[in-house]
Amino acid sequence: MLCDTLGPNPLLCLDCRGEVSPGSLPVPDAEARRVADALADWHRVHGALYRLWLDSAEYEAFAAAELRHPGSAVNRRGEAARRELDAFVPSYIYLFDADAVEPASPPTCRLCPRCAGRPLAPRGRFLVCDDCHAALG
Asked: Which of 22, 59, 104, 105 qualifies as a cystine partner to 52, CB 3.0-4.6 A?
C-alpha cells in the first residue's frame, strides 16, 4: 500500500502496517525504474503537502484540501503510481484523513470517500475499497 509516513519508504503492509522493502516486490528489472520513479514522484509531492499541513500555519487549509480531494494533482499522481505497482502486486493507496491524524488512528468513515459511498471492508489493519483500491485506517 502506498502511504506517506514521513519516512523514506512509502510502502506499507496492509496486514501489519510494517514497511515493505521495494526490493522485495515482484517487479521485473526492466520495469523497476519506471515503477520506482512513479512512487518517488508521488512520495515527494505528497510529503511536501503533508508537511505543510503538519505545520498548521497559513498553508494548512490549502494542503489539507489538496491531500483530501480525490481529483487533486497529488492524488492523481498517487493513483498513477498505485496502478504502476498494481501491474505486479495488488496495491492500495492510503487516503489522507485529517481527522485520523496518522495511519495508526481508526478511520473516521465507513464509506469510501472516492467511490461515492461504497462500503469499506476490513483488510488487515485497514479498511479498503476493492473497487478503487483506496485504504483508510
From this structure: 59
- 82 has which bridge partners? none
Mean pLDDT across the chain, nearest whole number? Answer: 89
**Dihedral angle over CA of 107, 111, 8, 56, nearest 10:** -60
What's the predicted TM-score (pTM) here?
Answer: 0.86
Render pLDDT for 90-101 as a digit per residue (tens, 0 to 9).
999 998 876 665
Strand 134-136, strand 93-94: pairing: parallel
pLDDT tens-place string over residues 30-42: 999 999 999 999 9
Polymer length in residues for the chain: 137
Task: Enter the C-alpha cell of residue 123.
Answer: 483488510
From the list 130, 133, 129, the residue with the least C-alpha distance to 109 is 129
Grid cell for residue 62: 490549502
Which residues are registered as beta bridge partners of 3? none
Bridging pattern class, strands 134-136 and 126-129: antiparallel
- Put the strands of the sheet holding 93-94 in their side by side order: 93-94, 134-136, 126-129, 121-123
Residue 86 has pLDDT above 90, yes or no: yes
> Any bridge partners for residue 93, and if so which?
2, 134
